[in-house]
Amino acid sequence: MGVAITRQWTGYAAAVRLGWAVSSNWTRPILFIVYSVLRPVSMALILAVMYTVITGNAAATRPYLAFLIVGTAFWSFIQEGVSEFATGILEDRGRYHILKYSYMAPLGFPIFLIGRATSKLASAAASVVIVLLVGTLALHLDISPLRVDYPLLVAACLLAFVSVIAFAITLSMVLLAGRDLHGYGEIMAQFLYLFSGAIFPISVLPGPIAWLASLSPLPYWLELCRRAIMHGQAYLMFPNLSDGEVFLRLVAATAGTLLLGYVLYRMADRRARRLGYIDMEANW
User: Fold this and answer.
1) In the predicted model, is pLDDT for residue 175 greater than 80?
2) What does the CA dihedral 85, 87, 89, 94 come to, rounded to 10 degrees?
3) Which residues contact 90 (CB under 8 A, 6 or more apart)?
4) In a domain, 210, yes or no
5) Under a CB-based contact definition with an 8 Å cutoff, are residues 133 and 40 in contact?
6) Once rounded to an integer, what is the mean pLDDT over residues 39-52?
7) Looking at residue 7, what is its pLDDT?
8) Which of 16, 85, 88, 142 has minimal Cβ neighbours within 10 Å of its Cβ?
9) Total number of domains constituting the chain
10) Would you list the DSSP string of the chain?
11) What is the pLDDT of the chain when averaged over all its residues?
């Protein structure tokens, strides 16, 4: 039993290192981290400029600026975990032609996928810290590391990461059915961007769409991140719910995402094996 666990852990660690190496194109870690934070930082600054121009930087709208910056910062996890991960798996098959070997390895394909996804989330962590630092210094947001509710933040992020990994793995398996799907991961990430509460509350969406968005764990995760960091100084999507109630909704939504993801993954996996999608030539 201990040998099997050690073997699985070793394989998982190797998958994490492989994911990091492929994502960074085997460059130096510091250089890759700098590159990884440029996009979320630039996005946060662009949104801040738009906010300033539209609102005139009025004091009454400062809670919404905090809402915007925190949502943009933590969105890096979705961008990396969904878009970049799906693109990486498709490139493993069509560009590097190694996906079939990973699939047949004794490690187990799900462990390999989880390891690859973990490397994406790890690289996104630096982006979150940098964007929050920029927001604190350049935009004068009242963010203090000493006042962050770390237990709430860590618990919410762990549940969100489980959901993101489950969604990303399922999406990557579904996309294997296509021949030329480069960019579809980015499309899905941007779709989630609009329905997650990252840049505006889901309550502004049309009724049926807002209801569907409320089934996702992402709005509850971002809500708890804002509460843990800003302590009520950011605009709240669920002002009538306590922290505990929002957390329970996050737990329920995460459990639903895991269940649905498992069912869809098994279906996509069986279909991929039956129709030869794992080693299909993608004509790169």
Assistant:
1) yes
2) -170
3) 172, 175, 176, 181, 182, 185, 282
4) yes
5) no
6) 73
7) 77
8) 142
9) 1
10) -HHHHHHHHHHHHHHHHHHHHHHTTT--HHHHHHHHHHHHHHHHHHHHHHHHHHHTT-GGGHHHHHHHHHHHHHHHHHIIIIIIHHHHHHHHHHTS--HHHHHHSTT-HHHHHHHHHHHHHHHHHHHHHHHHHHHHHHS-----GGG--HHHHHHHHHHHHHHHHHHHHHHHHHHTT-SS-TTHHHHHHHHHHHTTTSSS-GGGS-HHHHHHHTTSSHHHHHHHHHHHHHTT-S--S-TTS-HHHHHHHHHHHHHHHHHHHHHHHHHHHHHHHHHT-TT-----
11) 82
Q: Label residue 155 by pLDDT band (50, 70, 90).
A: very high
| Band of residue 25 on the pLDDT scale cut at 50, 70, 90 | low
Residue 76 forms part of a structural domain: yes
Residue 104 lies in a domain: yes
Task: Judge whether 166 lies within some domain.
Answer: yes
